[in-house]
Amino acid sequence: MNSMDKRLAMIAIVVEDLECTAAMNEVLHEYGSFIIGRMGIPYREKNVSLISVAIDAPTDVVSALTGKLGNIKGLNVKTAYSKI
Fold it and tell me: InterPro entries under this entry (predicted)?
């Protein structure tokens, strides 16, 4: 598969430090043209947020996005790819 082939992916983000949300939102905005949808669930009892981001993009774009998110201190990021 060539890196320009678009893939559907779900990015799961656990925000463990709410101070980093501005940096996270800036990165997500940068890739907004590839994002299909986003859902966030604040879990106030544990002082964390759980965010899922659905994306349809070339694999190199998904990797770049998750790499930038993963470099933000206070975020835990994992990606699951569709086989489609």
Answer: Acetolactate_synth/TF_NikR_C (IPR027271), ACT-like_dom_sf (IPR045865), FeFe-hyd_TM1266 (IPR023860)
